Amino acid sequence: MKRQELIDAALLHYSLHGYQGATMKKIADEVGIKPASIYFFYKNKEELFIAAFQHLLDNHLAEMKRILAETSSRSVDRIFSEMLHGIVKYHKDDERGTMAYISLVTSPIPEIKLYLQKYLLHFNDWMVSSLDDLLRQSYPSLSTDEVDQIIKQFVLLGNGLFWGINLYEGQDLMEQVQIADRFISSMFRDIERKYGPMSKSE
């Protein structure tokens, strides 16, 4: 038995039952072992939670990096839009992981909250650095405050779409994505009215 099997089973039961309901017995039954065997790999339930949480967060960061790398030759407004679409697709394609993520984020475990804070700082540093570089290459005249505001608006849109995935389905969700796209387009039109066309071509 591998750690990954336990993580996969844990994510399944976190998504179905939340923290309280995802017992070590249910997780052990899922992989066909006795609950005590889990403790050869993880010293307690909290450590297994954190390992599962890390798995979800690492996958999310890897996907965002992949999208950024694959769209790097496009205009910055298209990159922003593709990343928002990527957030929606990633979480819709992995609904079990998304539900487990929500369960973990809202869990009562202090260690989980601390781990989340550390991850978000790491993810935020990467995101801000990456988007800052894109914006300054395309619009060298943007001030630091303007770049900061653009990135904060992007993060707000991304967070809104993430939670929207859990509230909307089908056409309703697509409307939310279209609204985010229009917001991105409007934001960059305003930038171009102020500073002229971007210096980086499609």
Please give the radius of gyration in angstroms. 20 Å
Estimated structural class: mainly alpha
H/E topology pattern: HHHHHHHHH
What is the average per-residue confidence, as pLDDT, rounded to a whole number? 88
Shape: elongated
N-C termini distance: 49 Å
Q: Tell me the number of strands.
A: 0
Helix content: over 70%
Describe the largest sheet.
none
Number of helices: 9
Please mark out the parts with pLDDT under 50 across 5 or more consecutive residues, or reply none: none
Fold blueprint:
Layout: H1 3-21, H2 24-31, H3 35-38, H4 45-70, H5 76-93, H6 95-105, H7 110-138, H8 144-165, H9 170-195
Give a structural overview.
The protein has 202 residues and is mostly helical. The chain has helices at residues 3-21, 24-31, 35-38, 45-70, 76-93, 95-105, 110-138, 144-165, 170-195. The radius of gyration is 20 Å and the shape is elongated. The mean pLDDT is 88.
Descriptive key words:
202 residues, mainly alpha, 9 helices
Task: Give a quick precis of the structure.
Helix content is 81%, strand content 0%. With 202 residues, the protein is an all-alpha fold. The longest helix has 29 residues, at 110-138.
